[in-house]
Specification:
By secondary structure, the protein is α/β, with parallel strands linked by helices. The chain is about 40% helix and about 15% strand. It is globular.
């Protein structure tokens, strides 16, 4: 059970060292109790108190890890009902369904196609993470064979879906090393699946007919020593499913119901026979509040918008996305190529660099750290002043790469031109377009 702020305070060292970022241990204890601080922020907490405090500071929705290695997936771990309250942490995992009755060659073909779905966006590689293998014919040998194929041949994490305990054992034996998610323990299989998950240290999904039905199952499994659970309330009608997702999240966060404090798994593939409609439903779950979303298939036109939605929702709203400060070469520039400068806001960089690339005019693009702000905002906040830009140009090393002395600044920062010239004597400061869309014409006309 979660501890109160006063109970946490009694377990702290009471040094008031301020190293945690707040003035007193009591303030830190209150922040810890309300989920506004992390236990690791206190460097002096006693070892004997750490276990109790770790339990008190644990996220109300338990983080669950599926898979191993660099591509492992963490779901859950959320602390707020609404993103603007703080942030959402672990993006919804996207899975595609494979039936165990599919020929091996067909499974291999699908995996090859799915593995190619990778999209670059603002410097990030976006891709789906999971394959859900469903037992469709009761053949445990075929189930195990395809589980091993998926585990061996791809970096996808694996969900094993069967209500046959013997088939599940076979699948686990074949793919245990991949740390798959077992789906799903029900009233009929909770004992067998709980024992199997505990014996092999694997995450386990739990399915009931209602949200209320989940409580008894998760309580029984936690009493067995299982903590890494994923829950499915069983609803497959859109309105009811949406209500269940919200109810589970609210119960865990607002009511402190530990029995429902687990990530959820959702099945758009079982709610419609149309992939476009699946995509719309999956979009709902990414926003509210699916931990894993299982689709019948992956296709570029449906997957890409889901990945973009996920990126936007699970990006910390308090921390702008940025790119690294430095010199970026676009189109193999040489010593005579134009030199442009802008801020390190990721969206600004990718729009500007894309327009430069589209112009087919090789250029040098200087990216100055402006704390992730756009040009106009950075200028207004004093993060993109003429003096700072001039100093940055000197230190960037661009003078060793070009023979000319002309710098193109963004049109929205035209006011800094004079200060840049003072900092860079002998340089010609040219004011470029205000809108990125005008950059190709501007460069071609030079």
């Amino acid at each position: 059970m979660a501890l109160t702020g006063i109970q946490i305070f009694k377990l702290l060292p009471k040094t008031n060292c301020k190293e945690c970022g707040v003035p007193t241990c009591l303030a830190f204890a209150m922040n810890l109790a309300s989920g506004k601080a992390e236990l690791d922020s206190c460097p002096y907490v006693y070892d004997e108190a750490r276990e109790q405090l770790a339990e008190a500071s644990a996220p109300p929705i338990r983080p669950v890890v599926i898979g191993k290695g660099v591509r492992k997936l963490t779901v859950g771990g959320e602390t707020v009902q609404y993103r603007h309250e703080k942030t959402f942490y672990n993006p919804t995992g996207l899975a595609a369904l494979v039936g165990s009755d599919l020929p091996v060659s067909e499974v291999e073909t699908r995996l090859k196609i799915w593995n190619a779905f990778q999209f670059e966006r603002v410097g990030l590689n976006l891709r789906p993470e999971l394959v859900a293998l469903k037992d469709t014919n009761g053949d445990k040998e075929a189930f195990a064979e395809r589980a091993k194929l998926i585990a061996d041949a791809t970096e996808f994490n694996l969900i094993l879906m069967t209500q046959d305990a013997e088939a599940m054992k076979a699948g686990v034996a074949a793919a245990k090393f991949k740390k798959p998610l077992l789906y799903a323990a029900t009233n009929d299989t909770v004992d067998a699946y709980g024992a199997l998950a505990k014996e092999n240290d694997l995450p386990l999904a739990v399915k009931a007919d209602t949200v209320e039905g989940l409580v008894a199952l998760t309580q029984k499994l936690t009493e067995m020593g299982l903590k890494d659970l994923v829950i499915d309330p069983g609803s497959r009608e859109i309105k009811q499913s949406f209500e269940d997702q919200v109810a589970i999240r609210r119960a865990a966060l607002k009511d402190g119901n530990r029995a429902l404090g687990f990530p959820t798994i959702t099945f758009p593939c079982e709610m419609t026979t149309n992939l476009d409609m699946e995509t719309l439903i999956a979009g709902m779950y990414i926003a509210k509040y699916g931990g894993i979303c299982v689709l019948s298939d992956f296709s570029g036109e449906s997957l890409f918008p889901l990945l973009l939605e996920r990126l936007n929702i699970f990006t910390d709203p308090q921390r702008p996305m940025t790119v690294t400060e430095g010199i970026y070469e676009i189109g193999n520039p040489d010593e005579n190529s134009p030199v442009m400068v802008t801020t390190n806001f990721a969206l600004t960089y990718f729009i500007v660099s894309g327009e430069i690339e589209g112009s087919r005019v090789p250029s040098w693009l200087l990216i100055k750290d402006a704390e992730g702000l756009s040009v106009m905002t950075a200028w207004a906040a004093g993060k993109f002043s003429g003096d700072d830009v001039g100093i940055f140009v000197k230190k960037s090393g661009i003078m060793d790469k070009v023979k000319h002395t002309e710098l193109i600044i963004p049109g929205y920062a035209a006011a800094i031109a004079g200060d840049v010239e003072e900092e860079l004597p002998g340089w010609k400061i040219t004011v470029g377009p205000r809108e990125a869309a005008h950059i190709p014409g501007f460069l071609k006309a030079r």
